[in-house]
């Protein structure tokens, strides 16, 4: 059984149909990526899974249960961690407090403290800046913090929304190194990206989305060689 | 309301006023009619401020006081004739309107509420405490009412006089609000950045609305002081400010008829409940609490919703044929550099969306600005249109530095724009949106507009015809009278382009015009952009839709991570490895 | 000099009251961009509920007068707890009636709806307690304390001590506790707060409970100074609102600072010319806002286009 199975998902913003019946699945331990240009509907899909937008039709099954329509804060409790587009770190609180808030749904004080130390190990720059306000971090550091914050909830599924957005190429590489590491640790990840080459390289499977519809699907390696991916971005 | 129906309504009201003496009403009822009139006067101007310009004021009791005390002091202390006192009251009202506008237009939200409350309280305290001049609670006795032919006004005369003032105020505001001033107020309320983008000065529009509201409110105060022949500081309370606002909002702010409903219903309710003071207050509380919830647009809104059910919109076609801005012959000399950007820099905290960008744009061509999401393209566009001020660098448009100019001035130079997340004036018709685009080219004076002079009507009719021609040209003619927000999404996008074109720009900035469009609509958009170019307008567009970009542009600029990484002809850009890497990520990572 | 010290003391006490109420404005404004414009009416049950319970306990009618002997410190503490609990509970009703229908809708409809709620509350109080004011003795007695020659009322000291303790306590709660961090997270970005599992509406309701409870506390603290009546609220709440705006509606510390600043300015101007107090204060506020529209310590907002 897939951990996440989406069937015929539709989302509307006023007059615009942002998702026109999307179906995809993510299996336990898989890294699945959804790639496509700006405005294709990638982030809308993530927001629908994370309970942040109203679903107009279709089903989102997480571990067999339809979660379409439940609220954002309940999604976390079911085991969905979300590193959102634009990072959305709590800029007026310290790096450490951002991580503490990431574990808001948990009650095991010792476990939380241990996890913070663990992620400080993975993201040494966050450890150095743990008492700094998150708003003063660079874009790359904020992205690391957003990922670490999502992981603090000990999710079964991690939603990673455009982690490379607006980052310098060198930092993008660091972000992808982290994703690769999480994959090795067995984390199930749904990754939305514009940087197709990197995303396809880390993904087991991939989908290409264009104007609210899935137009291509395959293994990461297959799509890496597919000319159609390139033309989805830069025109035919 | 159609012109004929409106004329009949006004005539009926005038006739009813003329018939008042035959109803043998006692003074109690005459007083109620008078109070309705006064409440309408005060609320009519406040409605311009609240309902049209979108500025809340919780201190208009202060302006009411300005009018009342001007009338009292002018007559008693300075011995000025009551008629002249009324005029003076309006003048002082206008001056104080300016005074309160100065701090008010600089703030918004709760701070605006605070400034207006503060003004109201300062006035209240001054007239209460400064007894040498304002007589405090003792008040002014024996304020002379105006007289006609040597006969002082009786209560009946007062009803007639206030009725006449109300009708005059209504007609003037109706004429003013139907034209460019009314549109500008609404534009400021609905979307400030978009209002600036068509050349409206937000500060001036808000200030004007404050002054208009101050004048009618002061007039109401002066009339009350004269009719009462007595005025003291007890009239001026915070509760009066609230009452005036409730008349506007309960009646229906933003509707010409709202203050009429509000004044009639609340005055009658007040008179009827006066016997049970406790109930009176409860009623006010409940009105404030629930009426906005049940009727977000007040009584007028609820009534017009009902009326809309059986009234079909009468669409009047203009008699004169208009001239579409898109059909303009090319006037700009092609080839020269119309826009030169040097070392432009903008940072938000640790994030630097535009880092030392330099480029030039030649006139008469279509230029595309592309780059991955988050590269800083929209920020760059906001810098060019003057909506965001850069931290460094220069922007020269036709040789003129635009850095430091506010957005509405940049628009005035001939730079028009659209917005990534549509910023249409949603409640206004498509036609009004385009007319707002032409705001700077509709040259009617304030007085001409207020009095509805023939010259201002002609200008307005010409502008309407032109706007309609442009809409028809772009295939929107059929839907010109529908509210912008009810149009299908693709047409909304196109309407925004029409609005920008109506300002007859030299340079048009388009921020993701194809976002959310289907393939057919995208294709049509390409055709529209080609026609815009043929009309002699230089275009700079941000777009992700690469087929469109490659198909219509002659010059492509690529922004990545806040810096310009490439520019050139579309074919070359497409093969540029740096550009491919920016979009798809570097190839080398594949191996890892 | 003694007059100055005396004025300073009452200014600080009054300022502490403004600061408490202003802090309540900050907490709800941060989380919802709204606050209770009718907060003045919340001071009324604040001062009267607890006192009436004491009166009933003493076998008197609920709108009578308490004697000094009946107002022991224990009685005052119990009355305070009762007031804070009752007014805090009214905050929940306020949220559902006047805030929830309008929040996020933009515009200032919530200003009018909260004023309406306040008017209804004030008139309910009028029906219960009548228009007469009720003298409330201070639990510390009415004898003036002599400090450096200046006569200082013990209730003023009590107000300052309690208010500062509550402010410091809330400051710590907001910075250190799980609830405080969650509240600040909701204030910073409600969507991001939902993403980490915070139930945003629960936090918002709690914010209104705290805000209302603070107004209730202010009501019972100030009652021995102003006497308790249905009409005390409006003026005090307006100045608390001013304090919040001047200090910075978005900054809790700014709100507290604004409260003290306003109280002291008011008392010192009163020393010079009593009738100039309001005029000076509100002119000052208008000037501050023109120079710094977001208040002394408020964060400047950047509008996204």
Automatic annotation (TrEMBL), chain C:
Transmembrane spans: 6-29, 41-63, 75-98, 110-137, 157-174, 186-210, 216-242, 254-273, 279-299
InterPro entries reported for this sequence: ABC_transp_permease (IPR001851), BCAA_transport_permease (IPR052157)
Family note: Belongs to the binding-protein-dependent transport system permease family. LivHM subfamily.
Topology relative to the membrane: Multi-pass membrane protein
Source species of the chain: Bosea rubneri
Key words of the record: Amino-acid transport, Cell membrane, Membrane, Transmembrane, Transmembrane helix, Transport
Entry's localization field: Cell membrane
Chief location bin: membrane
Organism superkingdom: Bacteria
Protein name: Branched-chain amino acid ABC transporter permease
């Amino acid at each position: 059984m897939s951990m996440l199975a989406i069937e015929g998902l539709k989302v509307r913003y006023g007059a615009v149909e942002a998702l026109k019946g999307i179906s995809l699945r993510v299996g336990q331990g898989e890294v699945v990526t959804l790639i496509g240009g700006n405005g294709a509907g990638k982030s809308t899909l993530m927001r629908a899974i994370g309970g942040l937008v109203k679903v107009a039709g279709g089903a989102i099954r997480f571990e067999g249960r339809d979660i379409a329509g439940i609220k954002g804060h309940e999604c976390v409790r079911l085991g969905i961690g979300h590193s959102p587009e634009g990072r959305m770190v709590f800029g007026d609180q310290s790096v450490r407090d951002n991580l503490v808030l990431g574990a808001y749904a948990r009650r095991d004080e010792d476990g939380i403290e241990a996890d913070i130390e663990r992620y400080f190990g993975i993201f040494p720059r966050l450890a150095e800046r743990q008492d700094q306000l998150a708003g003063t971090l660079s874009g790359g550091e904020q992205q690391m913090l957003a990922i670490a914050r999502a992981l603090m909830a000990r999710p079964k599924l991690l939603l990673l929304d455009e982690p490379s957005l607006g980052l310098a190429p060198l930092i993008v590489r660091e972000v992808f190194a982290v994703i690769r590491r999480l994959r090795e640790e067995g984390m199930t990840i749904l990754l939305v990206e514009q940087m197709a080459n990197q995303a396809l390289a880390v993904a087991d499977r991939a989908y290409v989305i264009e104007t609210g519809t899935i137009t291509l699907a395959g293994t990461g390696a297959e799509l890496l060689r597919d000319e159609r991916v390139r033309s989805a971005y830069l025109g035919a | 309301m159609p012109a004929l129906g409106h004329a009949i309504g006004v005539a009926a009201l005038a006739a009813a006023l003329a018939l008042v003496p035959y109803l043998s009403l006692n003074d109690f009822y005459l007083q109620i009619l008078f109070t309705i009139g006064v409440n309408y006067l005060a609320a009519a101007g406040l409605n311009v401020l609240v309902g049209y310009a979108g500025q809340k004021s919780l201190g208009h009791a202060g302006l009411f006081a300005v009018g009342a005390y001007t009338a009292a002091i002018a007559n008693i202390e300075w011995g000025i004739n009551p008629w002249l006192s009324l005029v003076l009251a309006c003048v002082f009202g206008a001056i104080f309107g300016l005074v309160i506008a100065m701090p008010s237009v600089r703030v918004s939200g709760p701070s605006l509420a605070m400034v207006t409350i503060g003004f109201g309280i300062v006035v209240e305290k001054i007239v209460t405490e400064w007894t040498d001049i304002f007589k405090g609670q003792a008040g002014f006795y024996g304020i002379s009412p105006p007289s006609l032919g040597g006969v002082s006004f009786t209560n009946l005369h007062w009803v007639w006089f206030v009725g006449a003032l109300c009708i005059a105020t209504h007609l003037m505001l109706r004429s003013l609000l139907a034209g460019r001033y009314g549109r500008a107020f609404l534009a400021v309320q609905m979307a400030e950045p978009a209002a600036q983008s068509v050349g409206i000065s937000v500060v001036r529009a808000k200030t004007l609305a404050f002054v208009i509201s101050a004048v009618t409110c002061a007039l109401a105060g002066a009339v009350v002081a004269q009719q009462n022949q007595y005025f003291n500081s007890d009239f001026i309370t915070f509760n009066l400010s609230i009452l005036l606002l409730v008349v506007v909002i309960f009646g229906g702010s933003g509707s010409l008829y709202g203050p009429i409903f509000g004044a009639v219903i609340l005055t009658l309710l007040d008179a009827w409940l006066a016997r049970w003071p406790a109930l009176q207050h409860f009623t006010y509380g409940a009105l404030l609490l629930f009426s906005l919830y049940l009727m977000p647009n007040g009584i007028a809104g609820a009534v017009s919703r009902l009326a809309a059910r059986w009234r079909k919109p009468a669409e009047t076609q203009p008699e004169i044929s208009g001239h579409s801005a898109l059909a303009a012959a090319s006037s700009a000399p092609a080839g020269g550099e119309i826009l030169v950007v040097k070392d432009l820099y903008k940072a938000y905290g640790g994030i630097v969306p535009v880092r030392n960008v330099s480029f030039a744009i030649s006139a008469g061509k279509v230029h595309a600005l592309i780059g991955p999401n988050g590269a800083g393209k929209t920020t760059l566009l906001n810098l060019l249109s003057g909506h965001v001020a850069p931290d460094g660098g220069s922007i020269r448009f036709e040789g003129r530095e635009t850095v430091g100019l506010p957005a509405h001035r940049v628009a005035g130079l001939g730079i028009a724009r659209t917005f990534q997340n549509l910023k249409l004036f949603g409640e206004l018709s498509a036609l009004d949106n385009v007319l707002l685009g032409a705001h700077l080219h509709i040259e009617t004076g304030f007085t001409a507009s207020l009095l509805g002079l023939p010259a201002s009507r002609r200008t307005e009719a010409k502008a309407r015809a032109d706007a309609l021609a442009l809409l028809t040209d772009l295939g929107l003619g059929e839907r010109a009278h529908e509210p912008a927000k009810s149009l299908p999404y693709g047409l909304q996008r196109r309407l925004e382009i029409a609005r920008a074109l109506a300002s007859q720009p030299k340079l048009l900035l388009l921020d993701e015009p194809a976002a959310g469009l289907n393939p057919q609509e995208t294709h049509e958009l390409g055709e529209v952009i080609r026609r815009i170019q043929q009309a002699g307008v230089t275009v700079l567009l941000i777009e992700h839709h690469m087929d469109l970009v490659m198909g219509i542009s002659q010059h492509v600029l690529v922004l990545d991570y806040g810096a310009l990484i490439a520019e050139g002809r579309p074919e070359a850009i497409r093969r540029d490895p740096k550009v491919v890497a920016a979009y798809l990520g570097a190839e080398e990572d594949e191996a890892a | 000099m003694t007059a100055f010290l005396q004025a300073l003391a009452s200014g600080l006490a009054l300022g502490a009251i403004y600061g408490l109420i202003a802090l309540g404005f900050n907490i709800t404004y941060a989380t919802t961009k709204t606050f209770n414009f009718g907060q003045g009416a919340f001071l009324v049950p604040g001062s009267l509920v607890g006192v009436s319970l004491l009166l009933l306990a003493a076998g008197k009618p609920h709108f009578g007068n308490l004697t000094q002997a009946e107002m022991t410190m224990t009685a005052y503490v119990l009355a305070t707890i009762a007031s804070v609990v009752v007014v805090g509970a009214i905050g929940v009703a306020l949220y559902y009636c006047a805030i929830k229908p309008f929040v996020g809708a933009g515009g200032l409809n919530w200003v009018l709806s909260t004023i309406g709620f306040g008017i209804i509350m004030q008139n309910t109080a009028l029906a219960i307690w009548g228009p007469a004011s009720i003298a409330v003795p201070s639990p510390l007695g009415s004898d003036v304390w002599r400090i450096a020659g200046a006569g200082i009322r013990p209730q003023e000291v009590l107000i300052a001590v309690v208010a500062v303790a509550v402010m410091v306590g809330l400051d710590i709660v907001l910075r250190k506790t799980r609830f405080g961090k969650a509240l600040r997270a909701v204030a910073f970005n409600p969507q991001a707060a939902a993403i980490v599992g915070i139930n945003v509406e629960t936090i918002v309701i709690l914010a209104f409970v705290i805000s209302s409870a603070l107004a209730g506390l202010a009501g019972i603290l100030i009652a021995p100074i102003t006497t308790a009546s249905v009409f005390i609220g409006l003026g005090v709440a307006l100045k608390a609102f001013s304090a919040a705006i001047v200090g910075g509606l978005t900054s809790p510390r700014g709100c507290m600072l604004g409260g003290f600043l306003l109280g002291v300015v008011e008392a010192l101007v009163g020393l010079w010319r009593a009738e100039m107090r309001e005029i000076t204060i509100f002119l000052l506020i208008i000037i501050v806002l023109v120079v710094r529209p977001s208040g002394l310590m408020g964060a400047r907002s950047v509008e996204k286009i």
